[in-house]
Amino acid sequence: MKSRPTVAIVGATGAVGAEFAACLEQRKFPLGTLKALASARSAGKTMNFRGETIVIEELTEKSFEGVDIALFSAGGSISKKFAPIAVKAGAVVIDNSSAFRMDPSVPLVIPEVNPGRIKEHKGIIANPNCSTITALVPLWPIHRKNRIQRVTIATYQASSGAGAAAMEELVESTRAHLEGRSYAPKVLPHPYAFNVFSHNDTVDPETGYNGEEIKVIRETRKIFEDDAIRVGITCVRVPVLRAHCEAITFECEKPITEDEVRAILSDAPGVKIVDDRAKNYFPMPIDASGQGDILVGRIRKDVSDPTGHSIAMFVSGDQLLKGAALNAVQIAEYLV
Ligand SMILES: NC(=O)c1ccc[n+]([C@@H]2O[C@H](COP(=O)([O-])OP(=O)(O)OC[C@H]3O[C@@H](n4cnc5c(N)ncnc54)[C@H](OP(=O)(O)O)[C@@H]3O)[C@@H](O)[C@H]2O)c1
User: Fold this and answer.
1) Which atom of ligand 1 approaches the CA of 167 most closely?
2) Which CATH architecture has domain 7-128+324-335?
């Protein structure tokens, strides 16, 4: 890898794509040239990067000539088609879609958890699902000290997880609701303003689990390299613009106390404890938005488990950053 690689962002105009550019700039990523790629609809538009104007180009099969690192966030079908083309042209692909995550030959990486897998790549490295990353960053240091046998998660997922158009839908439908106008949902399947609904990913008719839930279950096992870990999860969209929350309860192999969890998390990378019982101040999306750390609070004994093996907590993380763009840029930093 060159010391100042040429980096391409595929999906540069999207919710994640915009954060890729911001992370590269803020973290002073040592890139030579930035190439911004999107659909034909966006070709010719411009974006600002490090004070320079970059013209967005249409993604084509020729887009990857001279590209060293390609950051993909334009959906699974685009990744499936263009990631192999980028690899053939000599680029290392870091992919945000679910296209390659469960491919046994593709490392699925959270740098705070399994950075050692990065060097095993054969051209493609996958970024995990945003709900997976948000849960596993704080769970991993606990799992290392006292194996987690079982975890139950309930998500409270923001509009940003469904892309820029879903964020706009939340704003527009809220405005319409307040003004007494009707609003027909265009991006998400149900009215979003002042509503909560089951995650919009497809539901498996056999099991009743939706795609987002299945991703978290499978990805957790792959990243922790622990096929025995039992994961139960319910994924829900809430009318929050940005940053997911998750209520997480986990059961360890040996007894564990809330003080032990607090001590483990107090110096865990990528985690910030926000747990002020006196002020009733705990993780909130409004605080998590715009920062790279996963906020963790409400750390307490799970009183439904009298054996003392279980802890409950509540987390919030900016899924456009740590759940997507930041995680990918951290992976890219390992490559240079
Ligand atoms: N949002 C999240 O929190 C999150 C987290 C983890 C992973 N991801 C994954 O990241 C990907 C993008 O998500 P997003 O939320 O950023 O979506 P988004 O806001 O809808 O952005 C989609 C991007 O893909 C581009 N695109 C669409 N069709 C294209 C085509 N035919 N050729 C080239 N570019 C095309 C769009 O370009 P135009 O503007 O030109 O249409 C846009 O830049 C998805 O795979 C998603 O699952 C998202």
Assistant:
1) 19
2) 3-Layer(aba) Sandwich (3.40)
Judge if the beta carbon of residue 11 lies within 6 A of ligand 1.
yes
- On whether the 132-319 domain is CATH 3.40.50.1820, my answer is no
Structure tokens at 181: 């106008």
Alpha helix positions (H), the chain:
15-26, 76-88, 130-145, 164-178, 211-224, 258-266, 285-288, 326-335
Q: What does the chain come to in residues?
A: 336
- The pLDDT > 90 percentage for the chain reads 99
3 falls in which pLDDT band (50, 70, 90)?
A: confident
Phi, psi (deg, nearest 5) at residue 64:
-100, 10
pLDDT at residue 68, rounded to an integer:
98
Distance 163 CA to ligand 1 centre (A): 7
| Cα angle value 52/50/54 (rounded, 5°) | 35
How do residues 43-60 score in pLDDT, each as one tens digit? 999 999 999 999 999 999
Mutate to test the pocket of ligand 1, among 45, 57, 85, 96 (most ligand atoms within 8 A of CB): 96
Tell me if 59 CB under 6 Å of ligand 1.
yes
**Gap from CA of 83 to ligand 1 centroid (Å):** 14
Q: Is 14 in the pocket of ligand 1 (CB under 6 A)?
A: yes
Sheet architecture: strand order including 69-72: 57-58, 34-38, 7-10, 69-72, 92-95, 124-126
Distance of CA 72 to the CA centre of its chain: 13
Q: Which atom of ligand 1 is nearest to the CA of 40?
A: 40
Name 110's Cβ contacts closer than 8 Å, sequence gap at least 6: 128, 133, 136, 137, 140, 223, 327
Would you kindly state where each structural domain of the chain is located, as residue ranges? 7-128+324-335, 132-319
* This prediction's pTM: 0.97
Other CB atoms closer than 10 Å to residue 315's CB: what's the count? 27
Identify the three-state secondary structure at position 174.
Answer: helix
